[in-house]
Amino acid sequence: MAQVGFLAIFFVVEMIERSGLFAGVGFSVLFEYLSFRLPMMAHQVMGLSVLLAVMIVGLLLGRWGEMTAIRAAGFSIWSLLLPLELAALFLAGLDLVAVERILPKTNFHATYIKQVIVRQHAAASLLISKHWYLLDHQLLKITSVDSELQKVYGVSLYHLSDSNQVTLHVEAQSADWNGTEWIFRAGHRWSFEGSPAVPNVRPFDAWSSGVSLSPDTFRPRPTTPDEFGLSDLKQTLQQNEQLGELSTLTWADWYTKLAWVCIPLVMVPVGLAFVLHRQKKSSGASAITVTVVIGVAYYLALAIGTAICRIGGLPPLIATQLPNVGFFCFSAWRLYQVRW
Length: 340
Prior knowledge:
The protein is α+β, with helices and mostly antiparallel strands.
């Protein structure tokens, strides 16, 4: 119920914020966008939902005298904490599956609706610019792509000899897929002949390139961390290591995603510590207030840690997991102080 309540609040707030942007395309497009945003909203409020649920249930058990019965039966605080942590572990597992399998797809579709359908940006805006492709004695570069029209823009093609010397250089404004190859449009060809090679320039309106790469090769790709799963980021890290490139930002994104998944495990002892210290003085309203305060404090700490590791101030693992470790240790200390 806590998850449903938070989702309803987020849904309404998001709908109000986006209503102006989607005014020209109709409510159906807005509803489709919000539908794709729902999984991300559920992921973001999972920790708060667990925290509020633990607080409300704990306060109700205290008012009904069940906490007294639990103490009288000889159960320790840690035996009370264990089943709650197992339930949180199950939720964290579901969240991990969503981060890996569901959220990259739904976030990409939401971005596509907002950027392409609503803001009328070309689908190319969803691409990392200037992709290079190495073919058989050919080197191809494209700047952007419209996968729906099967058309690419800003095309460069280099033909290479066995000694990797450029024998032909082609620049075109665009290229169309005719079912078997790409037809370059509105460009120039530079052929290098003789020794020393003298460039021979020829303009063209249409030119058969012989490049038979499928249009699926140039399909839109994720450009933001929300559109990547953990395995996608891991693959990017491996590629960067092979190329000798720095991967600080990618590691920061990877560990930040992992930190979000661990939030339910952290919020269980936080909520239980609050309940056991204030079960006679607190109400449902105070539980909601405390949930919001703790949630803001936690997410602020996580944002600061992520920013620090992005600028190289701390290793990504330490910077992103420090809020989890800090909140967990503080709540464990508070539980240890409870007179049970």
